[in-house]
Amino acid sequence: MADIVLPPDPTLDEMRAALGAVIPAHAIFNGWGGTALENAARAIGIDPGHARLAFPDGVTGMIDAWYASIDTRLATAFPPERVAAMKFRDRISALVLARLALARPEKQAARSALAILARPRNAALAARLGWRAADVMWRLAGDTATDLNHYTKRLTLSAVYGSTLMVWLDDESENEADTRAFLARRIEGVMRFEKFKAQIIPHPERRFSMSRFLGRLRYPAH
C-alpha cells in the first residue's frame, strides 16, 4: 500500500478516505472495530478521537471506506490507455483479478468483512457495495450503456464478482489457479448470455417506432 499523505488540516471525508486504506491491515489482528480504527489512525498521524468522528456509521462504514479505497486504486491501475489496449472480453476479467489482488494483503480482513456484511441487517449495504464495485469495473472497462443494459450488466457482474470472491477466500491453489479458472468460466457464461441477448433484442434503430411509422405515412419516401 502506498504511503498515506494527508493535508495539514484534513476534513472528515479526507480522514475517512485515508483510514479506509489503512484499517484492514489492523483489522487482521484486532477485528473490525474501535481498536483497529485507533491503531490505523495513529499509524498515519490522525487523532483517534477525530478518526471516530469520521465513522459515525461504525464498523460498516470502515468496510465501506476500504472498498472505496480499492475502487480508487483500481482506477489508478487501469487508466484509459491501458484499457484501450486490451480486448473488451479480457477487460472485466483483468479488473476482477486486479481487485482481488488489491485485497490480497488483507485477505483475512476481507473474510471477516464479508461475514459482517452477510448479517441480515447489513443486506442493503452489501448489495450497494456489490453494485458499486460492478459499476466501477464496467466504467473502467469502457462501458457507456445508459439503457436497460446499464443495469443488467452491473447486476450480472456483481453476481460474478461475489461468487468469485467466495472462491478466492478459500483458494489455496498455486497462483490462485482455481479462482482464475472459476472466473474464466463465469465470464464465458456472461459473454454467451450477452451474445444471445443481442440476438433476441433488436438494435434501437431497428425497433418499431410509432413516430417513424406515422412520419413515413405522412411523408412517404420517394
What does this structure look like?
The chain has 222 residues and is mostly helical. It has helices spanning 12-20, 23-30, 34-43, 48-53, 58-77, 80-84, 88-103, 107-117, 123-140, 148-169, 177-200, 210-218. The model has no long low-confidence stretch (mean pLDDT 88). It is globular, with a radius of gyration of 22 Å.
How do the strands and helices of this protein lay out in sequence?
Elements: H1 12-20, H2 23-30, H3 34-43, H4 48-53, H5 58-77, H6 80-84, H7 88-103, H8 107-117, H9 123-140, H10 148-169, H11 177-200, H12 210-218
Helix pairs in contact: 1-5, 2-3, 2-8, 5-7, 5-9, 7-11, 9-10, 10-11
Supply Rg.
22 Å
**Structural category:** mainly alpha
Spans of at least 5 consecutive residues whose pLDDT stays below 50 are none
Element string (H = helix, E = strand) = HHHHHHHHHHHH
Biggest β-sheet, characterized? none
Q: Fraction of residues in helices? A: over 70%
Q: Counting H and I runs of at least 4 residues, what is the number of helices?
A: 12
Shape: globular
Instruction: Note the beta-strand portion.
Output: under 5%
Mean pLDDT reading: 88
Total E-strand runs: 0
Q: End-to-end span in angstroms?
A: 67 Å
